[in-house]
Amino acid sequence: MPRPERSYRTPAIILKRFDLGEADRLLTLFTPLYGKLEAIAKGARKLTSHKTGHVELFTRAEMLLHRGRELDIVAQSEMTAPYLALREDLVRGAYANYCAELLDRFTSSNEADGASRLFTLFDETLARLCDDADPRLAVRYFEIHLLDIVGYRPELSRCVIGGETIQAEDQYFSYVEGGAVCPKDAVRGSAATPIAMPTLKLMRHMQRSPYGQVRALTVPPDVHDELERIQQGYITHLLERRLQSVDFIRRVR
């Protein structure tokens, strides 16, 4: 969708923010129509500014932006979802930071394709990270649906090497091929990591089901750990780098 010429209103979630100069803040925003944007909130660090408190990290706001020569300018900002638990709880905030970094890495600035679905997914994930007793399942659900939207949906029902239907037994997962590999083809030399059938079933369930059904599950710790290992291994392969927030989560957890 083409960007407006002068001023426009949009919901926005703040992915990142940096101090700029003596009083300004540089914001990385994610919006449902325009995707990822960078904008300056002038004077936002002044205690008397009307923007103070409305440009907090991992919050949703309704913004009026003016298009600038290089960067857009935040003319008005009204917070609509504060997601307070993400700033009050270190672990939940660390998970939110991971999801924000993931969204940032898999998207380009001003790319509208899929932006609405990504915005909704991220917004709902922030709410789940605030409310859920164990936020890890919300993070894994976010990962697998983000991969789907941006075009890296893993194949979990058929062997990505031979094409045969995956049977109800322990399998393998290939980061390079992007999906499940049956034991026969894994033995033939495919670079694949083992994945237990309960973990593979959970991944399939997450792919096809609304989050309410996923949240109702009782997931054993070993399945949680393997699911995290598989999905983060795949993501690391796709990005060709390890996300900085992963190590921070492990330290605070």
Characterization of the model:
The protein is 40% helix and 22% strand. With 253 residues, the chain is α+β, with helices and mostly antiparallel strands. The strands form two sheets. It has a five-stranded mixed barrel. The N and C termini lie far apart (41 Å). The chain has two domains: 7-81, Beta Barrel (OB fold (Dihydrolipoamide Acetyltransferase, E2P)), CATH 2.40.50.140; 86-252, Up-down Bundle (de novo design (two linked rop proteins)).
Question: Which features characterize this protein?
Answer:
253 residues; alpha+beta; OB fold (Dihydrolipoamide Acetyltransferase, E2P); de novo design (two linked rop proteins); 2 domains; five-stranded mixed barrel; three-stranded antiparallel beta sheet; 9 helices
CATH architecture descriptor name of the largest domain? Up-down Bundle
Mean pLDDT, as a whole number? 91
Helix content: 40-55%
**How many discrete structural domains?**
2
CATH superfamily of the largest domain: Recombination protein O, C-terminal domain
CATH topology of the largest domain: de novo design (two linked rop proteins)
Strand content: 15-25%
Tally of helical runs: 9
- The gyration radius over C-alpha positions equals 20 Å
**Shape verdict:** elongated
